[in-house]
Design a protein that fits this description.
This is LITAF domain-containing protein. InterPro entries: LITAF (IPR006629), LITAF_fam (IPR037519). The protein has about 140 residues and is an alpha+beta fold. The chain has a domain at about 60-140. It has 4 helices and 6 strands; from the N terminus they run H-H-H-E-E-E-H-E-E-E. Strand 4 (about 120) and strand 5 (about 130-135) form a beta hairpin. The longest helix is centred in the first third of the chain and has 19 residues, at about 35-50. Bound molecules: zinc ion. Zinc ion binds near residues 123 and 128.
Length: about 140
C-alpha cells in the first residue's frame, strides 16, 4: 500500500510543467519579427499620395469655402479668395423680418450675416471674379 502512492503521484507532476513553456516561447519568437515590417510598409505608401496631389475643383463646384481651382482668366492654379455679398436670400431675410415687426433697423440683420449672403470667389493672382455662389438658388455661376 505505501508503494502505490509514490508511483501514482510521480507521473502526474512532470507532464504538466515542460510542454506549455517550450511551445509558447518558440511561437512568440517566430511571430515578432514580421509584424513591424508589414506595418511600416503600409504607413509609408499611404502617406505619400496625399502630399503629392492637391485636389483641384472645377469653378462650377465652388461653394462657400475657398478652394483650389484653375482660374479661367489667367489659367493659374489658385486658392480662391471669398467675399460675401448681399443677394436674393439676404433681401428675403430683410423682408421676412420686416413683416414680423422688426421695423427699427432690426430687419437689416441679414445684411451682416454671412450665412444668408452670396459668396464671390476671386482669383488672388489677377483679382478677377471666378465664380459666384448664389445662396438662394444653391447654385454657382461662373463668370
Ligand atoms: Zn486669375
Amino acid at each position: 500500500m505505501p508503494e502505490k502512492t509514490p508511483l501514482n503521484s510521480t507521473p502526474v507532476g512532470p507532464p504538466n510543467d515542460p510542454p506549455p513553456y517550450t511551445s509558447t516561447s518558440a511561437s512568440t519568437n517566430a511571430r515578432v519579427p514580421p509584424a513591424p515590417n508589414t506595418s511600416n510598409t503600409m504607413y509609408g505608401s499611404a502617406a505619400a499620395p496625399c502630399l503629392l496631389s492637391p485636389t483641384i475643383y472645377p469653378p462650377e463646384t465652388l461653394r462657400t469655402k475657398p478652394a483650389n481651382t484653375i482660374c479661367p482668366h489667367c489659367h493659374q492654379s489658385v486658392l480662391t479668395v471669398t467675399k460675401n455679398e448681399g443677394g436674393t436670400a439676404t433681401i428675403l431675410g430683410v423682408v421676412a423680418l420686416y413683416l414680423c415687426g422688426w421695423h427699427h433697423g432690426g430687419c437689416l440683420i441679414p445684411c451682416c450675416l454671412p450665412c444668408v449672403q452670396d459668396v464671390n470667389h476671386l482669383c488672388p493672382n489677377c483679382n478677377t471674379r471666378i465664380a459666384k455662389f448664389d445662396r438662394f438658388e444653391q447654385s454657382t455661376v461662373v463668370k
